[in-house]
Amino acid sequence: MTIEFVVNMFGKTFVIPETVVNVWLIVIVLFIFALIVNSKVKKLKVDEKPSNFLNVIEMYVEIINNLVKDTMGKKHIKSFGPYIFTLMTFLLFANLIGLIGFTPPTSDYSVTLTLALITFTLTQFFGLKNNGFVGYLKGFTEPIALLTPLNVIGEIANPVSLSFRLFGNVMAGTLLMTLIYNAVGFFAPLVAPLPHAYFDIFSGVLQSFIFTMLTMVFIGGNLD
Description:
The protein is mainly alpha-helical. The protein contains 7 helices and 2 strands. Keywords: ATP synthesis, Cell membrane, CF(0), Hydrogen ion transport, Ion transport, Membrane, Transmembrane, Transmembrane helix, Transport.
């Protein structure tokens, strides 16, 4: 399913790519979903048994909080739990949207690079905040000053590798599924479910987990 917007402004034509449109669709869906959950939680009484829906949400929140606790430390759950929860949820929706015929936003490198740059910015911010400017710069000279150029390159390479890992895996799955549909044609409903299970579900969930875990590792490395 292809959705693009063409906007004419200042005498020029701008085409908003399908992947960007899908990002906003996911954001809108998640926003509505958050409102529904919030409404159900507020209506729940203290002595009332939560519904299965709220139990699942609570279980998911607990899983994310445990990941934050194990990777970044218990004291950082309150600060980073909501962001990690949002990141993981967005990535899951973005990677699994291919199951209903939409192009995954994460198959667009501009999307994965943006997410990786957010991680990079947070990493550098907390590195400066917790170590001070001098301590931050000194970290690039460890264990010996001779390795400073390599440390700088390694720090810059983190968002590049993080974004390419997610982009490459999702894009490869999208291209392979397109080839499979073109090859089998009429028999697609019989052949496609198994590749979808691997490329969309297994690989999609795995890449969401890996990206989120690396984000926590990179940021957590600069926390006190």
